[in-house]
Design brief:
The protein is of the alpha+beta class. Helices cover about 35% and strands about 10% of the residues. The protein is globular.
Length: about 290
């Protein structure tokens, strides 16, 4: 691409230097590097340490992973995962119409899996989100514009907040830091929501964030609060499965969470949903979604 535009002697020298290192291998796809650029550490190692720090056991993680898969399997059976657009596989007659990562395996089978990241660890393939491919899209606009275009909104995005913390020791605690911020901005508490949608990078990551939100000591020391944020009602959390069972295509999960939140509010006759996710470099985001009136 640079060669046709190289006019000056300096630009031509740069092109020559690039061509000198070119080989057929240069055309091969690069293998994705899953390590964090800030700590050079794989997220699974961070998840293992996080679980040790907050006392999340292997059994708790396996149970949550099992729950995620069972919830997703039931949601698919009930037709609730209706936002999936069929994709035709090029060169074949095959059409992808559903997520293929959902595995409703028994807890006994999950307990037999070896640690995925380090000896003695508790994070496994069954209680982690798996590498997957996918894309998401949504329309975000003013209510007046939607009406002008003849579109019926699904929900209002009422509030949002971002947070960031220590990328080494708190890489996956972004939701716990972002949720108090968005609740404060909206003047709401955890029990003011009928739906929770949290990104499941790892089962242990979700459970650690929930423990942090319910810890007086942590919330006082790190959030400057007078006490805990609150206890999250597990009956409201990720009832159609999550990233552990559905997958986590990088850059696509945020809209999937938002879609589940909006659709669940309508299906479960709720009013508000709390959506939160962790992200690379110890970032976190939390959003408040309100159901659009019928």
């Amino acid at each position: 691409m640079k060669a046709p535009r190289a006019k000056s002697a300096e630009a031509k020298i740069q092109v020559a230097e690039m061509a000198r290192g070119f080989s057929p291998a240069s055309l091969s796809p690069e293998i994705p590097d899953p390590r964090e650029f800030s700590s050079n550490e794989v997220m699974g190692h961070s998840a293992d340490r996080l679980c040790e720090r907050f006392g999340v056991s292997r059994e708790e993680q396996d149970k949550f992973g099992h729950r995620s898969h069972m919830m997703a399997a039931q949601a698919a059976k009930d037709g609730n995962l209706s936002d999936i657009i069929p994709v035709k596989v090029s060169g074949t007659e095959a059409v992808v119409t559903e997520d293929n990562g959902i595995r409703a395996a028994s807890l006994e089978k999950l307990a037999k899996l070896r640690p995925a990241f380090r000896k003695g660890g508790t994070v496994t393939a069954a209680n982690s989100s798996f590498l997957s491919d996918g894309a998401t899209a949504c329309l975000l606009m003013k209510e007046s514009k939607a009406k002008e275009l003849g579109l019926k909104p699904k929900a209002y995005l009422r509030e949002f907040a971002y947070a960031s913390q220590d990328p080494k020791e708190e890489l996956l605690l972004g939701p716990a830091y972002a949720i108090p911020k968005v609740l404060k901005k909206a003047g709401l508490a955890l029990n003011d929501f009928q739906v929770y949608e949290l990104h499941e990078a790892f089962a242990g990551q979700v459970l650690s964030n929930i423990k942090v939100l319910g810890s007086d000591e942590f919330c006082k020391a790190n959030f400057g609060l007078s006490g805990k944020v609150g206890d999250m009602d597990m009956d409201k959390l990720n009832n159609w499965g999550g990233s552990v069972s559905i997958g986590h295509p990088f850059g696509a999960t945020g809209i999937r969470l938002l879609s589940h939140a909006a659709n669940r509010l309508a299906k479960e006759d709720g009013t508000r949903a709390l959506v939160a996710a962790c992200a690379a470099n110890a970032q976190g985001v939390a959003m408040i979604v309100e159901r659009y009136p019928n």
